[in-house]
Amino acid sequence: MRQAVTTAPGVMTVHEVDEPVCPPGRIRIGVEIVGLCGSDYHLFSGAHPYARFPQTQGHEFSGRVLEVGPGYVGPVAAGDRVVVEPFVECGTCVACRAGRSNCCSTLQVMGGHISGALAEQVVVPAEHVYQAGALAADIAALVEPISIGMQAVRRGQVTSEDRVVVLGAGPVGLAATLSAADIGAQVLVVDRVASRLENARNLGAERVVDNSRVDVRAAVAEWTAGDGAGVVVEATGVPALVRESFELVCASGRIVVVGISGAEASIPVIEFSRKEVSVYGSRNSVGLFPDAIDLVERNAARLAPLITHRFELDRVGEAIAFALNNPDQVEKVVIEIGGNP
Ligand SMILES: [Zn+2]
Ligand SMILES: [Zn+2]
Prior knowledge:
The chain is of the alpha/beta class. The chain is built from 12 helices and 17 strands. Strands 3, 4, 5, 8, 9, 16 and 17 form a 7-stranded mixed β-sheet that branches. The protein starts with a strand and ends in a 5-residue tail after the last strand. One zinc ion (ZN) binds next to helix 2.
């Protein structure tokens, strides 16, 4: 089978390798669609904190089940279209024991720590495989990023009573927007790219703010009658916006940081107590794939325009370079590997 390997920063080649075997407890999947995201771009360039080489990238994917491992008892059968929680947890650390395997202390994420989905076949833990129902392969590949935004919204305990500010309208910010709006919250989304703000509107944002032209603090103050937002979801990883979250949130409010960066944010210590804010980190998702599949199914038509570019497996390096060089044009790039979308 063919497998893409990032051999060094900025260098990806496609190799012919043996088909993987499927031991007990695992499921072998023929990959159909792999979505690329910001972390893939940073892993590719070597800038991501988890970057290592050589590595097969890819963690957002859909496919068809080719084989279930011996002794498997569960709903998934050969031929099913499935989506996969793309990590392997230890099962025994403090986070795993608390039911939060998404932040396992030795978490191994596909495409980062362990081999990912940019290949014709992958073998994954059976308990992380979910039937994708009637979803098309390309839309099904959006389930994982949608689950990331959903996790951030759950971490922030968003309710229908909340006014939520989402910083960043990339795929995760948009997923948080859709997820919060689906709960019934009112959502204001901040970005500096007009097409992304248009996507945010289409996915349920009540208000959008272009922070290259508009003062965000004033806009949020006006939107909340001076209170500030009940919840701020920081989905950029930009230190200045992590800092800004403390200005935008209301007294007693919640901040959820889901954006990723190795950079340091500088925050006056008094900001934690001044408004008695609750600050949450959010990583991957846990237990949310069934809800994420449902959310994607109900919004498939609205989500389809987020897939802006398609490439084949032997052009992944080119796809990533294109995305890095054209951030204003690219929302979601997908790699078409096999099957019939
Ligand atoms: Zn991703
Ligand atoms: Zn663990």
